[in-house]
Specification:
Elements lengths: L25 E2 L4 E3 L1 H4 L2 H4 L9 H9 L6 H4 L5 H13 L3 E3 L5 E8 L2 E11 L8 E2 L6 H14 L1 E2 L3 E5 L4 H12 L4 E4 L5 E7 L4 H6 L4 E5 L1 H12 L9 E8 L6 E3 L1 E5 L4 H8 L4 E5 L3 H9 L5 E5 L3 E6 L3 H7 L6 H4 L2 H13 L10 E4 L2 H11 L2 E4 L5 H9 L10 E3 L9 E2 L1
Helix pairs in contact: 5-6, 6-9
Protein name: DUF1015 domain-containing protein
InterPro entries: UCP033563
Pfam families: DUF1015
């Protein structure tokens, strides 16, 4: 799998390896896309991002189209098998490489939303340079998994999601392309969202506008950490100094910020509530989930506990002494007031005595009903949270702090398999 024409290198971009003072960079690349003449429906071979796919979805996707990209992003038989599958699809024409590097204008739209941005290769930066700002911590397991998949496939399969405060010529160019020309790709996914893609051979407008700007990692912290880990294992500058990203102007297309709820399959909900009562006010709730969510929204410091049989409790008014002892003293007051910090530090670690990882504490993006249903199936406990706000997240990131792991669900997220990148 050659890298000479498939991805940007420091030499071809006319720049030194990623280093201080170079600012935000989004470079063109030769996109890899499914051939409709081979696979037929592009909707059938693309899918949501890997971390939004649960076991039920995974089984359905694997049983569907023969060439669904989930066979590579979530391989049944390990990373090496995914690499062989990718090379097979490239060899037999299932996947084709665009003939020349470009940026890609990407649009997602539905009845009540529209998002546009640019897909390209973002120059990787050390956090100390304050160019690409993470706002969330990561679990080591998923980073190892995504890094291993990248190593085996020599590809960026899914763009991370970056936002920046734009309003400049790059954003104007994105809108002109989307409003004034026919896309190279258009599909409607199963949830009714329309996805469109255009090739853009930039004349320098994007590069000039982005220079000196900062970007926030909205979604994809584990993949960005995997980019950096993969880069660190290489010898010298090269295409590994870049990673696939969708960059969205948050001023023109403000992202949606939802909550990420928790499911603890090994924790009995009645036991969870009994232990929580040591440091929280516990209020049993009647009237179903919709009413309970309204009660949660009205309680800024509230957490909603749910178990099988529609049992629901609101936790509020955490004991300030127990809270101060459970949370890191070096953190800012803003950080210590986050619902996810209270959940992780006081509730999960201190009161429930659970060491969190991707197995003991599962996550569900946005959908509280899905979290409650999963907890019921496992006879475990769901914790439903209010979403953080964009100003909270931005203020913490600007101050050099990160929210606890899996605190935010920015969206809408790009669909996987529309365009990929070989390293």
């Amino acid at each position: 799998m050659s890298t000479s024409s498939d991805a940007p290198s420091a030499r071809r971009l006319g720049a030194s390896p990623a280093g201080p003072g170079r600012g935000l960079e989004l470079a063109p690349f030769a996109g890899v896309r499914f051939s409709p003449s081979v696979v037929g429906s592009l909707e059938a071979v693309t899918c949501p991002p890997y971390d939004l796919i649960d076991e039920e979805d995974l089984g359905r996707l694997r049983a569907g189209a023969d060439h669904n990209i989930v066979q590579i992003t979530l391989p049944r038989d390990g990373h090496e098998a995914a690499g062989r599958k990718l090379r097979e699809w490239l060899a037999n024409g299932t996947l084709v490489v665009d003939g020349a590097p470009a940026l890609y204008v990407y649009e997602m739209g539905g009845p009540r939303f529209l998002q546009r941005g640019l897909i390209g290769c973002v120059g990787l930066r050390d956090e100390s340079e304050r160019v690409i700002l993470p706002h969330e911590n990561v679990y080591p397991g998923p980073v190892r998994d995504r890094s291993g998949l990248m190593e085996a496939t020599r590809a960026n399969l899914e763009p991370i999601f970056l936002t920046y405060e734009g309003g400049g010529p790059a954003s104007d160019l994105v809108d002109r392309v989307a409003d004034g020309s026919a896309p190279v790709l258009e599909i409607v996914s199963g949830d009714g969202t329309r996805h469109r893609l255009w090739r853009l051979e930039d004349d320098g407008t994007v590069a000039d506008d982005l220079r000196g700007r900062q970007a926030l990692i909205a979604d994809g912290h584990h993949r960005y950490a995997a980019y950096r880990a993969f880069q660190a294992r290489q010898d010298g500058p090269g295409p590994w100094d870049y990673g696939l990203a969708l960059l969205v102007d948050s001023l023109r297309y403000p992202p949606h910020l939802g909550a990420i709820h928790r499911v603890l399959p090994a924790l009995d909900p009645q036991e969870a509530v009994t232990r929580a009562a040591e440091a929280f006010k516990v209020t049993p709730l009647e009237g179903g989930l919709a009413r309970a969510l309204a009660e949660l929204e009205a309680a800024p410091d509230g957490l909603l506990i749910a178990g099988s049989g529609c049992r629901l409790w609101l936790l509020s008014d955490p004991d300030p002494v127990r809270l101060a002892a459970a949370l890191p003293p070096e953190r800012s007051e803003r950080w210590r007031s986050l619902s996810t910090a209270v959940l992780d530090g006081l509730l999960i670690s201190d009161l429930w005595k659970i060491t969190p990882d991707e197995h003991s504490v599962q996550v569900v993006h946005d959908d509280p009903a899905h979290a409650v249903a999963r907890a019921s199936r496992t006879e475990g406990t769901a914790v439903i949270l209010n979403p953080l706000t964009v100003p909270e997240v931005m203020a913490l990131a600007a101050g050099g702090e990160r929210v606890p792991r899996k605190s935010t669900s920015f969206g809408p997220k790009p669909r996987t398999g529309l365009v990929m990148r070989l390293i």
